[in-house]
Structures are given as C-alpha cells and as structure tokens.
Amino acid sequence: MDARGHGHAGLHARLHARIQSRFGDMFEGDGADRYDEHHRRLRPIHTAVARRAVALLPAGGRYLDIGTGPGALPALVAAARPDVTVTGVDVSQRMVELAAARLAVVTGADRGRVVLGDAAALPLPDGCADLVTAVLTTHHWQHLAAGAAELRRVTAPGGAVLIVEVRGPARHVARTLRQAGFVVGRENAWAYALPFARLIARVPA
Questions:
Q1: Second label for 19, Cα 20 to 30 Å away, from 27, 74, 83, 168?
Q2: Could you give the CA distance from residue 154 to residue 140 in angstroms, rounded to a whole number?
Q3: How many CB atoms lie within 10 A of CB 108?
Q4: Neighbours of 47 (CB within 10 A)
Q5: Rounded CA gap, 108 and 105, in Å?
Q6: pLDDT tens per residue, the chain (205 residues)?
Q7: Interacting residues of 25 by C-beta distance below 8 A, sequence separation 6+
Q8: Residue spans of beta strands (DSSP E) within the chain
Q9: Count of Cβ atoms closer than 10 Å to residue 70 Cβ
Q10: Which residues does 74 contact at the CB level (< 8 Å), separation at least 6?
Q11: Beta strand pairing status for 183-187 and 155-166?
C-alpha cells in the first residue's frame, strides 16, 4: 500500500474510534431500542436503496444486508420481492432480535433470517449472496480491509455489493473494495440532498 493508502486507512481508524467513543453503547440493550426509533428517520435512504436492490436482484436471488440494525431495509426488500431469500447480519444481539421480529412479519420463517456476526468474520458460507448491502455501516467496521475481503468471499460470481456511505469515507471504502477484487462504480443520483455516496461493487461472473 502506498503512503496515500496508509493515510486513508489511518483516517478510517480515527473515524471508527470517534464513532465508537460517542455511540458505542447505542446499539445494545435500551440503546438499541432508542436507536430503532431514530432509525426511522433514515426511511428515505432505505427506500431509495431498496428500490435499487430490487432492480439488481435476479429472480429467486439471495439477498444479504450487513449491519442491518433494526432490519428496516431487508424488510422493504422482502416485501417487494417475495421470490428472494433474505439474510441480515448485525454485531448487536439486541439489533438481531429487533430485525428478526420485523422481518418475520414480512417473510415468515421460510425465507428470512437474521444472524449475529461481525463484518470481518461473517458466519456465512462462500458465495451465498447475489446482492449484499451495507448502508451507513462501514464507518463502524474496525477492520475495513477484512470486511471487504469477507464481502468478496460471500458474494457469488456475477453478484454485486451496494454500499451507502458518507462521501468522504466512501472514497477509502471504494479503494479498499478494489483491492479486495471488486470492480467498483459510484452513483450519486439521489432524490434528496444528503451528502452520501452510493457504491456498486461487482464480482466478475
């Protein structure tokens, strides 16, 4: 990695440390329940991402959401695509419980599940997803390169990863995804004026 790459990695580490110090206890216990209420303010983002995800998923596809939080996004995708199997992953046990309850309302027990896991060591088999999403979560990952490698491992050949992140950190995320073997494009065509970038990372078929 060149000096610029080290600089971006250092920036990510500092951002992660600041976020953890301020919000680290927000995602467990009572904090998770309060976050669920706050999370509803992100509905415009989830709606836009769900629309894109629905378009990207093949018939009968397998969809994975990492850092799923209380499960708003996978519930939207599952409701729009009854042919798709849906998996959510979160590092917080309470978030897993909230997301599983929300997803079960849409999918029942046959095509939706939420599991406890870290982005750097996903408890999932190789090539298990045709589409992976990670929305405003990569800045929480302590080990971004390990997370990108796991994204590459679980994404099936010909599949894609859709990431939404704040525009500044998104540049380092895109660089890290390329180093992991993805072909990365960037989209900024949002219907609302928020400072986010949308990355599409594809795995060659």
A1: 74
A2: 20
A3: 10
A4: 14
A5: 6
A6: 455 555 555 544 544 444 445 445 554 555 555 655 655 677 888 998 999 999 999 999 999 999 999 999 999 999 999 999 999 999 999 999 999 999 999 988 789 999 999 999 999 999 999 999 999 999 889 899 999 999 999 999 999 999 998 877 888 999 999 999 999 998 765 444 567 788 999 999 8
A7: 31
A8: 62-66, 85-90, 112-116, 129-135, 155-166, 183-187, 196-202
A9: 29
A10: 63, 65, 68, 86, 87, 88, 99, 103, 112, 114
A11: unpaired
Domains present along the chain, CATH in parentheses: 3-202 (3.40.50.150)
| Residue showing tokens 């896991």 | 117
Token output for 144: 């971004």
Q: Report d(CA 6, CA 60) in Å as an integer.
A: 41
Enter the tokens of residue 99: 């997301």
Residue showing tokens 């599409």? 200
Alpha helices in 132-204 (DSSP H): 144-154, 167-179
How far is it, in rounded angstroms, from Cα 114 to Cα 38? 20
